[in-house]
UniProtKB/TrEMBL annotation:
InterPro entries: CBD2, CBM2/CBM3_carb-bd_dom_sf, CBM2_carb-bd_dom_sf, CBM2_CS, FN3_dom, FN3_sf, GH, Glyco_hydro_5. It comes from the Bacteria. This is Endoglucanase. The lineage of its organism: Bacteria, Bacillati, Actinomycetota, Actinomycetes, Micromonosporales. Residues 1-30 form the signal peptide. It catalyses: Endohydrolysis of (1->4)-beta-D-glucosidic linkages in cellulose, lichenin and cereal beta-D-glucans. Residues 24-131 form the CBM2 domain. CDD domains: FN3. Belongs to the glycosyl hydrolase 5 (cellulase A) family.
């Protein structure tokens, strides 16, 4: 058929549709296809099908099928790809007319030799007239394991596991905050047009050939990367960290010191980790880093691996959205041999590192406080878990606990030399030291000072009280540590950001039942003291 004839056909079809009101039942879930003769010469006719998307979301393909009675055959056809088998005829969209927005329509045409008209018409597997009459109503299975695979300053890429369906899955809808953002045909996609350093949530639904939508997938949060140099948060300024000699260096290869807070055990004090408290930590306290303390025992990870892993994902996103670094603390404590939880650690860190590998603000703390176990066992554990993390996230800094509750061995009567003489066989790692100022006096301080001149040290936990996290504060001794750590640029994190009754929990009891976390009115003395020391100006060289 020549172009003029086709144009004339289209015009007459439009007129015909308007005049005789070729109506189809509106359908909430399907495309529809309506048949109309556009010319009839007795021994044959020319016809046009109008395919309309009656769903509320875009479809990216369509296929109309129908029977013609024996004796009626199709001659030529246009604007669709035809395949015929016996008296069943199938018309699929061309590459250029498969995508139909909500409410949009398109046409295809053909000529028939004979007088028979289409019966048993389906479009995308459902009835051509929409809802009634046996259209497919079975929804595809829900897409699984939705995850963010990478972020830029203005886009988030996602991937998920495929859905299945009886009439075939034709594509997926990606929703941002519940609103349709884009549609794709494969099991991955990118949402663009986003704002830098902003947290978003995404879900996905599968579409089938009949236009049915699956249930909503798991929700994933992702935070866009900081904008090009414009950010002023600690994570935006410093970017990906790496160990340089004995120091922690920023993206300008300049040594920096991070200062911040550790959560309490997230199995007990999740109520203290919320948007209000984290806003206060980032903007009122001006913290650089949040340590996410996930116990393994004592009601922690081992009781609900999925739930605790998801909680850590969530806290990472919230820290990221506020421009803070996030230390993922594998808070093993009892039993004290980290090897006892090695297989759990493999599972956990594989998922955490794989999900967050494209972020530049994650540090991995692989063993909170080994105890009752020698340095060689800790070193062996570290040399097994570090490659697990590196396989996913090659450039994340890893923090390794030391003997006797991360005292560099001192609380077992040993010293830092056991680490210096027999370091972990890995790069881009630091060793941790924990102190409680009312329990750990100058011999501990001196060991930290000596060690920091030889190996990279990070104080991932300290308190101003006794090692119980309770009792009287010794601010004088604590200040001596802080002075040392400022001089040597040793990063530090204080225990703990909760309203536990003990003196080392910064908030007054009951604070986490409310919504106010800023200022000093909600703080115990240790909280007032440490907030004052976190919120002083950072020294982050960018030259
Ligand atoms: C303490 C908590 C306390 C909890 C206890 C359970 O303050 O509420 O009942 O753990 O094990 C550490 C540990 C850290 C301790 C903290 C204070 O890493 O888990 O928290 N501490 O005792 N090492 C030295 C002190």
């Amino acid at each position: 058929m020549n172009r003029l004839r086709r144009l004339a056909t289209l015009v007459s079809a439009t007129a015909l549709a308007a005049a005789s009101a070729v109506l189809v039942a509106p359908s909430a879930y399907a495309a529809t296809a309506s048949f109309a003769k556009t010319q009839d010469w007795g021994s044959g006719y020319e016809a046009l099908f109008t395919v309309r998307n009656d769903t509320s979301s875009t479809i990216t393909s369509w296929r109309v099928e129908f029977d013609l009675p024996g004796g009626s055959t199709i001659g030529s056809s246009w604007d669709a790809v035809r395949t015929s088998s016996g008296n069943r005829h199938s018309f699929a969209n061309q590459s250029w007319n498969g995508t139909l927005g909500a409410g949009a329509s398109t046409t295809f045409g053909f000529t028939v030799s004979g007088t028979g008209t289409p019966t048993n018409c389906t479009v995308n597997g459902g009835s051509c007239t929409g809802g009634g009459g046996g259209g497919d109503t079975q929804a595809p299975t829900t897409p699984g394991n939705l995850r963010s695979t990478s972020v830029t300053a203005n886009s988030v890429s996602l991937a998920w596991n495929a859905s299945t369906d009886n009439v075939g899955v034709t594509g997926y809808n990606i929703y941002r905050g519940g609103t349709l953002a884009t549609t794709v045909t494969g099991t991955s996609g990118t949402v663009g047009g986003l704002t830098a350093a902003t947290a978003y949530t995404f879900t996905v639904r599968a579409r089938d050939a009949a236009g049915n939508l699956s249930a909503v997938s798991n929700q994933v949060s992702a935070t866009t990367a900081p904008g090009g140099g414009g950010g002023s948060t600690p994570a935006a300024i410093n970017g990906q960290l790496r160990v340089c000699g004995t120091k922690l260096c920023n993206r300008y290869d300049q040594p920096i010191q991070l200062r911040g807070m550790s959560t309490h055990g997230i199995q007990w004090y999740a109520q203290c980790v919320n948007n209000n408290s984290l806003d206060a930590l980032a903007t009122d306290w001006r913290a650089d880093v949040l340590r996410i303390s996930m116990y393994i025992q004592e009601g922690g990870y081992e009781t609900d691996p999925r739930g605790f892993t998801d909680r850590v994902h969530d806290y990472i996103e919230r820290a990221t959205a506020r421009g803070m670094y996030a230390i993922v603390d594998w808070h093993m404590l009892t039993p004290g041999d980290p090897n006892d939880n090695l297989s759990r650690a493999r599972t956990f860190f594989t998922e955490i590192a794989s999900r967050h590998k494209d972020k530049t603000n994650i540090l991995y703390e692989v063993a909170n406080e080994p105890n009752g176990v020698g340095w060689s066992s800790i070193k062996s554990y570290a040399e097994q878990i570090i490659p697990v993390i590196r396989a996913q996230d090659p450039d994340g800094v890893v923090l390794v606990g030391t003997r006797a509750w991360s005292s560099l061995g001192l609380s077992d009567g040993a010293s830092e030399t056991e680490v210096i003489n027999n370091p972990v066989n890995a790069t881009n790692i630091m060793y941790t030291f924990h102190f409680y100022a009312a329990s750990h006096g100058s011999s501990y301080l001196n060991a930290l000072s000596r060690a920091a001149d030889r190996i990279p040290m990070f104080v991932t936990e300290f308190g101003t009280q006794t090692a119980s996290g309770d009792g009287a504060n010794n601010f004088t001794q604590a200040q001596a540590y802080l002075d040392l750590m400022a001089t040597k640029k040793i990063s530090w994190v204080n225990w703990n950001f909760s309203d536990d009754f003990r003196s080392g929990a910064v908030f007054n009891t009951g604070t986490c039942n409310g919504t106010s976390y800023a200022g000093t009115g909600v703080l115990k003395p240790a909280g007032v003291w440490v907030r004052d020391r976190i919120r002083t100006a950072d020294d982050f060289p960018t030259g």
